């Protein structure tokens, strides 16, 4: 008998499951995710499943972790303060390719160097310029991202910059060629920025998870779910945390397939922060050929082709005052639900809410609170932000006590983006408590908060809602609509027929809305999804029946839908993919682009054989390092050629090598 422990750290809950012989869930549990110390939430969930099952922790042969931490951090614009070193590019590339937006005020330097398309040196690396810049900016960041022009054709300058930065600062460095072998330097630079930003966060999560599991007696090796659903060792994940973006959603897809055996379906997973939608075809999710997209960022990370929307049970509720009726929108930022925070500070929360309800007119800061995230060490913090953090202290504080002017509001926003402060406000979770769909937190606090929110005036001058229950219905109806649009966008994006419009516009078209409602006039219109939807997430059973009705489709809600991510964390395989390219810089020369200097060969076959052997060795080594055993290695060639003067001319060859195996289990 084999026992596997799966753990998923979500934005709101941490889930744990125990699976026997890869066939049966014998225990599952949830614990609130503890942002200030994730090990507390992990420990709570694991202790609960151990207690339920009566299993000896030492009998567990595999432990695996999936996490939405990286995904949520990118959606919410959080992460460490980092610096970008851009080699061989232009200063204008920072703004042109969205790198300035991704840096969000973090420092960057553009220095001379880089290589050509063929791998030759374009200009010498400006080492003196880099070292001078490090002297000024090296202390104020938590890590560095390095991206060189055509580094995938010759990574020498990235590697030299890595050495110089390490020697000068001792801080983590992410090189773009370690994350992707594809061209598109600015996109690799963006991916490197995000990876550098996540290193401290993911390293902290893994370290605390390992420590807590050991304390509980679980000695099995820890694996981590990658964004394509494959498993990797904890040490491997520490080096490349960017590969864990969409980890939680990818694990949910693997879990959905395991629970339902469905071959063709849309999978929709609602968490506290995001809703993730994926198409399952022939029992497998597609891998996004353009790289994972999370929030505004398109990365070069291989991940499940999934649409991630900032919509969850804890999404921020925004007031829409335009129009006679008014309304709300949800997300993309996650807030702490009022009903949850009220458990930590009940007397203060209710006193403030009651006082605000006693005011004659609604206020801008009604039902809004802030709380410092304990255990987070600020880096490069100064001025107003440092003062505001000091003012917050260690307790939950109402906005009115914290914000003194508009500049304070901007400083608070930056602290939230750095993951140093959390905001509490009205969320769909609060609405669910008011409607009686769930009853785990403080319903009375939720009712007061929704009453305050409903007092806001619409364009007609009337309150948005007369009662807390009316306000709750407005919020839940909006969640149903936005979930419906997320599913329809995915359906249109994957549909083979061209409907002549963007998937977002088509999903929200008035004609489709009429057809979904079964319009009967001069025209008879009907529409619906032609595939079932597998609804996942702790709140799926509360929200998704209405979504199925709205889309006129079958809604499958598996028994263990609430812990699908944790299930997927332990039923997947370890898979490593390595890619490489052979080019032909001149007739009769075939160049293999390796991690060291490029190598030239006299025939295309010689060059491709050399590259394939090198990729096989690397993939096998990485698979072993990632914790695999029983490894199978396969290779695929994509050779591009052209006809010229009645002969075939070699242009380029891309080779993909894949090494897959089962995760290595602990043996006594």
Number of helical segments with 4 or more residues:
23
| Rg (C-alpha, Å) | 26 Å
Helix proportion? 25-40%
Strand order of the largest sheet: 3-2-1-4-9-10
Helix and strand content put the structural class at: alpha/beta
Mean pLDDT, nearest integer? 89
Uncertain residue ranges: none
Number of strands: 29
Quick structural gist:
Helices cover 38% and strands 25% of the residues. The chain has 668 residues and is of the alpha/beta class. The strands form 7 sheets. The chain has a 6-stranded mixed sheet, with helices on both faces. Strands 11, 12, 13, 16, 23 and 24 form a 6-stranded mixed sheet that branches.
State the main characteristics.
668 residues, alpha/beta, six-stranded mixed β-sheet, 38% helix, globular
What does this structure look like?
This protein is α/β, with parallel strands linked by helices and 668 residues long. It contains 23 helices and 29 strands. The protein has a six-stranded mixed β-sheet with strand order 3-2-1-4-9-10, sandwiched between helices. Helix 2 (69-75) packs across helix 8. The longest helix has 31 residues, at 185-215. The chain is globular.
């Amino acid at each position: 008998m084999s026992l596997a422990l799966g753990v998923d750290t979500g934005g709101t809950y941490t889930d744990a499951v125990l699976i026997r012989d890869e066939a049966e869930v014998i225990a599952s549990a949830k614990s609130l995710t503890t942002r200030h110390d994730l090990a507390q939430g992990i420990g709570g969930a694991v202790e609960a499943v151990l207690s339920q099952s009566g299993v000896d922790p030492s009998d567990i042969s595999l432990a695996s972790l999936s996490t939405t931490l990286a995904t949520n951090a990118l959606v919410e614009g959080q992460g460490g303060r980092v610096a970008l070193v851009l080699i061989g590019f232009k200063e204008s590339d920072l703004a042109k390719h969205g790198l300035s937006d991704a840096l969000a005020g973090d420092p960057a330097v553009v220095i001379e160097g880089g290589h050509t398309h063929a791998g030759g040196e374009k200009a010498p690396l400006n080492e003196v310029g880099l070292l001078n810049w490090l002297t000024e900016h090296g202390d104020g960041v938590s890590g560095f991202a390095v991206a060189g022009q055509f580094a995938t054709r010759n990574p020498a300058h990235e590697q030299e910059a890595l050495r110089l930065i390490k020697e000068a600062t001792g801080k983590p460095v992410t090189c773009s060629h370690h994350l992707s072998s594809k061209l598109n330097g600015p996109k690799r630079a963006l991916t490197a920025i995000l990876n550098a930003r996540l290193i401290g966060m993911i390293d902290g999560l893994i370290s605390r998870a390992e420590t807590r599991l050991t304390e509980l007696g679980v000695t099995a090796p820890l694996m981590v779910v990658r964004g394509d659903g494959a498993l990797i060792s904890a040490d491997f994940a520490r080096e490349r945390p960017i590969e864990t973006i969409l980890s939680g959603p990818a694990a949910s897809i693997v879990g959905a397939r395991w629970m339902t055996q469905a071959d063709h379906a849309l999978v929709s997973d609602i968490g506290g922060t995001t809703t993730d939608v994926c198409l399952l075809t022939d029992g497998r999710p597609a891998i996004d050929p353009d790289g994972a997209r999370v929030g505004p960022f398109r990365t070069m990370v291989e991940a499940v082709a999934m649409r991630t929307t900032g919509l969850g049970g804890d999404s921020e509720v925004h007031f829409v005052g335009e129009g006679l009726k008014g309304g709300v929108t949800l997300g993309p930022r996650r807030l702490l639900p009022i009903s949850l925070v009220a458990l930590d500070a009940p007397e203060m929360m209710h006193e403030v809410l009651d006082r605000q309800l006693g005011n004659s007119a609604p206020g801008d800061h009604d039902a809004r609170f802030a709380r410092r995230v304990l255990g987070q060490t600020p880096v490069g913090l100064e001025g107003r932000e440092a003062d505001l953090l000091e003012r917050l202290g260690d307790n939950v504080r109402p906005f009115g006590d914290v914000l003194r002017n508009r500049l304070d509001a901007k400083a608070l926003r930056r602290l939230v983006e750095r993951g140093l402060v959390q905001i509490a406000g009205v969320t769909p979770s609060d609405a669910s408590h008011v409607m009686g769909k769930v009853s785990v937190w403080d319903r009375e606090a939720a009712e007061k908060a929704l009453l305050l929110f409903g007092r806001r005036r619409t364009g007609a001058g009337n309150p948005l809602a007369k009662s807390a229950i009316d306000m709750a219905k407005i919020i839940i109806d909006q969640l149903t609509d936005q979930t419906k649009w997320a599913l329809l966008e995915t359906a249109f994006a994957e549909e083979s027929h061209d409907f002549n419009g963007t998937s977002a516009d088509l999903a929200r078209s008035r004609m489709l809305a009429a057809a979904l409602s079964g319009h009967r006039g001069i025209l008879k219109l009907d529409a619906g999804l032609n595939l079932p939807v597998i609804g996942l997430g702790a709140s799926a059973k509360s929200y998704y029946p209405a979504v199925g009705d709205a889309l006129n489709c079958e809604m499958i809600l598996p028994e263990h839908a609430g812990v699908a991510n944790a299930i997927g964390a332990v039923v997947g395989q370890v898979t490593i993919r390595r890619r490489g390219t052979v080019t032909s810089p001149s007739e009769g020369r075939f160049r293999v682009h390796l991690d060291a200097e490029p190598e030239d060969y006299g025939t295309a076959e010689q060059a491709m054989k050399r590259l394939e052997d090198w990729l096989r060795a690397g993939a096998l080594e990485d698979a072993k390092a990632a914790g695999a055993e029983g490894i199978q290695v396969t290779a695929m060639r994509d050779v591009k050629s052209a006809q010229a003067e009645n002969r075939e001319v070699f242009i380029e060859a891309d080779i993909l090598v894949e090494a897959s195996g089962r995760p290595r289990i602990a043996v006594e």
